[in-house]
Amino acid sequence: MGESSSIAPYWFRVNRGDLDAMISHFGVNITDMAIPALLLAGIGVPLGFSVSHMLPGFSVGFLLAGLWVTWSAHGLAKRTGRSTVTSQVFGINVPSSTAFAISIMLPVYQHTHNLVDCWASGAAAVVWMGVFKLISAPFSRYIRRVIPRAAVMTVFAAAMYSYLSMTIVVRLFSSPLLGIIALTVVLCGVFAKIPLTKFNLSPFLVAWVIVLVVGLATGDLDITWTGMHLTSPWHIAPHLAQYMVRDISYFSVIVPMSVYAILQDFASVEAAQRVGDEYSVGQTLLMDGVCSVIIGVAGGIIPTVMYAVHPSYKHLGARISYHFWVPIVMLLVVITGLSMPAIDLFPWSLRAAVIAYVSIGVGRAAITNIDHKYVNAFLLGIIIPGAYLIQSTIQQSLAALKIHITPEISHVLDKAIYWGPISGMANGFLMLVLVITSISVCLIDRKFIAAALWSLTGSISAWLGLINAPRFGWGEAPDYALAWLVGTAVLLLVWAAVPKDFKAHRNDSQVDMTSFKS
C-alpha cells in the first residue's frame, strides 16, 4: 500500500538517479543536435543559419515526446502499483541525422547553393521518416516476427560503426589535448569503473567539466556568446510539400534509415521489457512517428528514435521525472537564443569520446544478444559499411572543394578506387546489411525458402533504387536487380537439390560435409 500511494503525480520529484539521467540525457541531446549543423558547416552552410532555422524545430517534438513518455510511464506505474517504473528514453537519431546531412542536404546544397533548398530537403526527409513510422505502427507485431533478431542487431552495429564511429569519432583529435583528456576520463569511469569524485558523478559530466576548464584555459575552446534573445522554436520551411515530393528521389537514404529507426524502436521496447517495464511497440512507433512529423513540419532536420538503453537508465536509478524536465530545459535553451553557446560548450572532442563509448556499447550489446551460431552472419554484415565510409569521405571532400561528381570524375575514381562497386555497396547500405544478414541467418538455419524471399526482396529493392543505387525510382539498378533475382533462383535450386534431411533446422554453426550424399 505504501508503494502504490507514492505513485501520485511524482514526475516533479527528482531523485539522485533522475538527476544523473537528466544531466546525461540533456548533454547527449544538446550535443547530438549540433552534429548535422557542424557537418554542413564544413561545406559552407553558415552555422548561424543552421542554429536559427534547422535546429529549433526539434525542441517542439522533443517536448511532446517528453510529455508522452512521462504520461505513459505514470500510467504504467498506476496499473502495476510500482514506483520503480522508468520512462522510455527518447532522443536524437544520430545515424539518421548524419545520413540526412551527408547524403541528402549536402548534395542538394552542392547542386543549388541555396540555403532554403538545403534546409527544406532535410525537414522533408524527417517528415517522410515520421510517415513511415506511422505506417508501420499497425503492423509492428508482424514486422518483429519476419525480421531475424540477429539481422536487427547487425543493422544497429552497422549504423553505429559507420555513421558514428568513423564519421564522428575521428573528430576525437580535432583538439588532441581535449580529445585525450575526454577519452581518458570516460575510459576510467566506464571501463575501469573507477568512481569519479566522492559523489560518484557521471564520467561524462566529469569529462565535460574538465574539458571545459582546460579548453578555456588553453584557448582550445571558444564559446560564442550571442546574448539572450527570444527565438521561435519553429521555423516552417517554405513549400514543404513541394520538397517532400522532391525528396522521393532520396528514398534510397530515407527508407533504409526509417527501417533502422523502426527496428530501434522495437529494440527499445524489448529492452524495457527485460527489466520489467511493459510498453507497447505500436504506441511507441505511433508516438515517434507523430513527433517526427511535427519536428519536420516545424522546420527541424533532426530525426528521432527511442533509445534501447532503458536498462542502463533504470540501473542508474532514473524513474519518471528526468524525461519530464529535460525537454523543458532544451526548449528554454532554444527560445532564449542560447543554442549557439550551448553547442560551443560541448566541443567535438567531448562529443567524439561519448560517441565512441556509445558505439562500443552497441557493438557489445549486438554481439552478446546474437546466438553464437549467427556470429558469421554478423561479421559479414558489418563489413558492408566500409564502402559507405569511403564514399561519404570522398563526397564531402569533393563538396568542400566545390567539385561535382561528373561522369568524367566518376570514371577517374573508378580507375583509382573502384568507385562503381563502392557506390553500389554504399548506396542504401543499411538496407543491404539487413538483406544480406537475413539471408545468411536463414541459410544458417537451413531455411532456404526464407533466404530466397530475402534475396527477392533485394532484387525488388535494387530495382526501386532502395539499395545499390544513388536514388529512388523505377529500374534504377537493373544489373543489381537481375543479380539478386539470379541469387533467388540459385537458392531455390539448392533447396530443391539438397537431401531432405539436410533441410532440417540445425543446432550448430558447423556443416558436416560427410552427410551431404550425392
UniProtKB/TrEMBL annotation:
It comes from the Bacteria. The keyword Transmembrane helix applies. Keywords: Membrane, Transmembrane, Transmembrane helix. The chain crosses the membrane at residues 26-49, 55-77, 89-109, 121-139, 146-164, 170-192, 199-218, 285-310, 322-342, 348-367, 374-391, 416-436, 448-469, 481-498. This is Uncharacterized protein. It comes from Alicyclobacillus dauci.
